[in-house]
Amino acid sequence: MPMKYIYKLLVILQLIVCQTAYTKPTFDEYLADLKLQAIEQGYSTDFVDQVFLGINYREKTVKADKNQPETKLTLDKYLATRVPDWKVKKAVDLMAQHKELLDQVEQHFGVQKRFIVAIWGNESNFGNIMGKHSVVNSLVTLAYEGRREKLFKKQLFAALKILHQGHIEVEDFVGSWAGAMGQSQFMPTSFLDYAVDFDNDGRKDIWNTTADVFASIANFLRKEGWSNQITWGRQVSVLDNFDITLAGLSNKRWLADWQTYGVRRYDGNDLPKVDLRASLINPDGREGRIYLVYENFHTLMKWNRSSYFGISVSYLSDRIKKGL
């Protein structure tokens, strides 16, 4: 009997013995079933054994998932921590350092380079903070924990595909505790959808190859609707009688309409007289910062659904543009 069938039979027997009445499987049982599913998807037993070697349940991963910060920062405090002066200076310096490459990526994908650098800085501090957790171990642990099993199993099998395609070696396949990877902090499914081999070396390397990092960020934005003909939006002010219930990402109006409703530039002057649709957002309520955001901001929200994140990327991109 071929070895792969013997392997399957042993796994099935293990599961039958341990689950005559349904109870949640042990982690080892769950891992055995995942390995069987991988083999059924066409991966060799040698590949599966190599990828899952040493995988164990990581309580710290589950704890990190369950204990994400609940204290709500104000947008002002968030921007102070995410876009400090030192990060702006570093972003400006790195954009100058990589100007030739960034110009090539900008021209190829139609995404302004200041936004590429801003996402790079926000996601991984320009590649300095990528996480050191085994991606496979994190995803198996979070799938087994069960609250979002379907999500993390999908990410796990995407991770297997990345390894099988040879983009990175399993021992170097590391990321955040949640499985976000590389300098762009892509989840495995995002990697498969958007990662680019811009230097044409046969690997989509978002861990170590700057060209692939920049191109992958730009490719995501382009595929999700980015336009290099416009910016992201602007901070605005509103007149005292403005109806704040008009705020919300889903409420898109022409700038002329917002002008009529009582929205002004931040300095109080009239809005630009251009045919552009925008949404008004006020993450911290009427007393906090208020923005008119354009379609590119909606694209940023597809990267991360937090309006704070979108504003921090946008704010950093504006400061890069000013060189401050």
Q: Would you kindly provide a brief summary of this structure?
A:
The chain is an alpha+beta fold and 324 residues long. The protein contains 15 helices and seven strands.
Task: Tag the structure with descriptive keywords.
324 residues, alpha+beta, Helicase, Ruva Protein, domain 3, five-stranded antiparallel sheet, two-stranded antiparallel ribbon, 7 strands, elongated
Helix content: 40-55%
The number of E-state strands comes to 7
Following the backbone from N to C, one meets helices and strands in this order, namely HHHHHHHHEHHEHHEEHEEEHH
Q: Given the C-alpha coordinates, what overall shape results?
A: elongated
The CATH homologous superfamily of the domain at 3-62 and 131-204 is termed Bacterial muramidase
List strands and helices in order, with pairings.
Layout: H1 3-18, H2 27-40, H3 45-52, H4 59-66, H5 75-82, H6 85-97, H7 99-109, H8 113-124, E1 133-134, H9 135-145, H10 149-164, E2 174-175, H11 188-194, H12 210-223, E3 233-238, E4 248-254, H13 255-261, E5 263-265, E6 277-281, E7 290-293, H14 295-303, H15 307-322
Antiparallel strand pairs: 1-2, 3-5, 3-7, 4-6, 6-7
Walkthrough of the structure:
It contains 15 helices and seven strands. It is of the alpha+beta class and 324 residues long. The chain has helices spanning 3-18, 27-40, 45-52, 59-66, 75-82, 85-97, 99-109, 113-124, 135-145, 149-164, 188-194, 210-223, 255-261, 295-303, 307-322; strands at 133-134, 174-175, 233-238, 248-254, 263-265, 277-281, 290-293. The mean pLDDT is 92. The strands form two sheets. A five-stranded antiparallel β-sheet has the order 4-6-7-3-5. Strands 1-2 form a two-stranded antiparallel ribbon.
